[in-house]
Design brief:
The structure is a homodimer. By secondary structure, the first copy, chain A, is α/β, with parallel strands linked by helices. Chain A has 13 helices and twelve strands. Chain B binds a DNA duplex through helix 2 and helix 4.
DNA sequence: ACAAATTCTGCAAACGCTTGCATCGCAGAC
DNA sequence: GTCTGCGATGCAAGCGTTTGCAGAATTTGT
């Protein structure tokens, strides 16, 4: 048996220095009221002097649970995810919880690793805000008994809440708005993980265009999520020879990239081409021209997720539901009547 | 003594199911080669069937250290911090380390909490990329013996590396560039935590302007870090009646906000006002007009930090140094000759 | 066929903390 | 002066792993 004398600072060291038992130190550090004031201050001083910091792993282990909220997002760079993350973080901190984030970069292998990490950490709750998701992983989370929330993917279970945005509705609104402005040639720019051939958004776009004006043309392009991806998709679009009078983008972030490329090619927005986004991130308001987009209430989504996962600290979580949120069209200056 | 029968899945359950001891299971799960192939697969199957996930807290506790890289940033929203974070994350993942991020929002109380968290987690290494920092906290980290790197603050110690950017040089270059374009009235827009009256950047700006053209006017404004903060500072600037022909911003993110407000007020960039930023974030290239800025190699900084904190997995870390990086002026379209 | 060398596997301590229960000390009651 | 009651503390088990060492199983050598 190892007799590895611990060099690290631990409860024992503090206890010894203060002349009490480890239990007492533990009680002081956890603010249990049963400790005599004099003892209490003696312990606190000892801890201070020794520069003691409790080992959170040991703590979690002993308590059988951790005070950590796990968050998994696809792309931290995209302000949409970031905003939800920030809301969750602030809600968590308000309840004295810490937060661990993991980024998947839209890679499902990384998503797997992240889920493993969160389960391994025995997080108190888990928020999964990703575009990619396999049934298998949902099951894994379901079996883990960790209260969780999934955004835009999967179906509710006993410990899982689902939150989804009705993109269909948003796309329809946008298309009919553009249609009313006379647009008959439209393109949709997405990122790869939202645009498998099976993707609902893709279908919805095509359907909506077809419904609004059966004779209209519609095409679809894609690039990686991000400013560069948007730009790249726009370049492909232009090179393809297809000249849409309006471009719908899967999110604002990509839309900004798209606009950059259009400007570069001498096209004016919205005079030559109208552009729309999705999400209504801060940047949509700050770019030039300000972007017409669909507002998705990210703060509200964050709060809902937090509530359903760790609702006010009670043991009875409010999971197992499905919540649907409607986007709302926000018209700014990046859209106008179609060029004749 | 509690006889709380464990309901949670643990090594024991797997061991029992596979008909071996916990040690063997542990060895299988850690890929120790000494396990017989047949036993190995039996164990793996049992683990699979039971949906077993090792408890990382117990693991860290037993091992005496965790495979976690801690990162603390001021403002995850600012792409500058985000880029460093992403580099660190990818380096960490490449070595099989996980990452825990904490956001301080420029609040020193939150910074304290974050440092406590990281120490409590016994992270393998710590990167602190914040603008605010108290000597006291640096000492705390120093005493913790955790290999750490601080960006732009503090001084090297045995377990601490310092990385700083020579902002002074960048500001000088920018001012003299603008000066050469005929600018004689310039403003500096910062965020509060970079702009105490003691702040070096503030001083450098004033000095540089004074040196380049003794008769020139210079003023300083500030808002919170972010698009809104930049906009707000610009508004104050305009309302103050001071009409600079050039505005230097402490970072690109704020510069985008500043430009938005200027446009709103009908000022043209760079015809009426030139604007510069710092960092050279992606967005600087995508905004309109593309932003003249100072490139700060964030990827390089990320790699350096990672190397010095967890360099290639050896026990001998390369800390205790100070590394200085020079920014480089990148001229784009947001600057031009001064309006006469 | 038996000893020796070599794999493999199990035992049990240790990691640093929490917490139910036992204990100790002392004030007030009788 | 002994007893009761109660607040404050200590004891020690247990949380789920890892790992040094020893013992069991298997192979090798003769």
């Amino acid at each position: 048996m190892r007799k590895r004398r611990s060099l690290a600072m631990n409860l024992d060291a503090v206890a010894q220095k203060a002349g009490v038992s480890t239990s007492t130190v533990s009680r002081v550090l956890n603010n249990l009221e049963i400790v005599k004031t004099s003892t209490r201050s003696r312990v606190l001083r000892a801890a201070e002097e020794l520069n003691y910091h409790p080992n959170l792993h040991a703590r979690s282990l002993a308590r059988g649970k951790s005070r950590i909220l796990g968050i998994i997002v696809s792309n931290m760079e995209n302000p949409f995810f970031l905003d939800i993350y920030r809301t969750l973080e602030s809600d968590a901190h308000a309840q004295g919880l810490e937060v661990v984030v993991a980024n998947t970069d839209y890679r499902s292998e990384q998503l797997l690793a992240s889920v493993q990490l969160m389960i391994g950490l025995r997080v108190a709750g888990l928020a999964v805000i990703v575009s990619e998701m396999e049934e298998h992983l949902i099951q894994t989370v379901g079996n883990s008994r960790i209260p969780a929330a999934f955004y835009d993917v999967g179906t509710p279970q006993k410990n899982i809440t689902n939150i989804r945005v009705d993109y269909r509705k948003g796309i329809k609104k946008t298309v009919s708005y553009l249609s009313a402005l006379g647009h008959r040639r439209m393109a949709f720019v997405g990122h790869h993980s939202t645009l498998g051939p099976i993707s609902e958004r893709r279908k919805t776009f095509l359907e909506s265009v077809h419904r609004c004006s059966p004779s209209a043309e519609a095409k679809i392009f894609a690039g990686p999520d991000g400013l560069d991806g948007g730009r790249q998709a726009a370049r492909e679009l232009l090179e393809s020879g297809f000249r849409p009078t309006a471009i719908l983008c899967v999110n604002d972030f990509m839309a900004v990239g798209v606009m950059r490329e259009l400007r570069e090619e001498g096209l004016q927005i919205p005079k030559d081409v109208s552009v729309t986004g999705f999400d209504n991130i801060k940047l949509a308001e700050f770019c030039s021209p300000p972007l017409t987009t669909n507002h998705i209430p990210r703060e509200q989504i964050g709060h809902i997720i937090f509530q359903s996962v760790l609702g006010n600290g009670r043991e009875q979580y409010d999971t197992g539901r499905e919540i649907v949120i409607d986007p709302e069209l926000v018209v700014r200056d990046s859209t106008g009547v179609a060029k004749s």
